[in-house]
Amino acid sequence: AGPAGLTAAYDLARKGHEVVVYEAQSGPGGMIRYGIPEYRLPYDVIDREVAVIEAQGVKIEYNCRVGRDIPMEQLQQDNDAVLLSIGLHLGRSTRLPGTDHESVKKAVDLLRDITDGKEVEVPRKLVVIGGGNVAMDIARSMARLQKQKYGEVGVIVTALEDFDHFLADPEEVKESFEEGVEIFDARGPREIRFDENGQLQGLITWKCVSIFDDEGRFAPTYDDSDERLHEGEMLIEAIGQASDVSLLGEELTERLEWNRGRIQVDAAGRTSESWLWAGGDCVNGPDVVHAVADGHRAATSIDAYISTMEKRT
User: Fold this and answer.
1) pLDDT, tens digit (0-9, with 9 covering 90-100), for 15-28
2) Which residues of 172-187 are buried (b: 16+ CB within 10 A; e: fewer)?
3) Which pLDDT score, from 0 to 100, does residue 262 have?
């Protein structure tokens, strides 16, 4: 029930098709609800838009995880067409030694817990790895929780890029500074530091001299003489997301075509399986505009496919 899925559902319902959306979370919106804090996008705005979609006859099954509560095989059997719009709900890791420690978190997991109203651990000091909008979102979200609990902010962000090449939107960076977040640019994570009792002390970074090699490949180089310890009781990784494709099962995963970890589709949004379409972040990466466009495109293709099937019968 993210932008791609809801857009396609709306279009298909208006074309007269019966549509069911299966959503693993308890609310609609996908990454725009569970990846963007409410202060940036109020959830009542999302709910009003979804109410319009449901009024077209779209049925949304919440707390229903495909692959656990309903298998992909059943979706194929019960429907003429299936659209995958599963987003990017898994956080990527730096894979530094110690990332499996209980005090090392993923930004997407924390943002999801905050959205769900779950109690989140709030230390006095924490370090975020990453320089994109997700890094700024979790930094600001945790800063606000610190302000409520302690009356002060203790959030440090370390980013590989320098400020001239920052990935986060300028206004996100500006507002993070205004909320008391410290941002260190051109810093590469090198070591997670623990004390003798196994408690997290912080993150050691080196100055990043360059991110790409002469051929444009990701190959950071560092100045190891410029080393810094950023102290924190929690470390949050915000270096990118991936799709949870485990719901597909091994056989379907093997049959599908992939492009650098993302599902490959044709110009109509169709996968290599005749009954299966895909769209949104799991195809193009994080971009709401692309996701909505994918939803429209897939709906048009699915409608034409079903119309052709009906003519044959």
Assistant:
1) 999 999 999 999 99
2) bbeebeebbbebebbb
3) 94
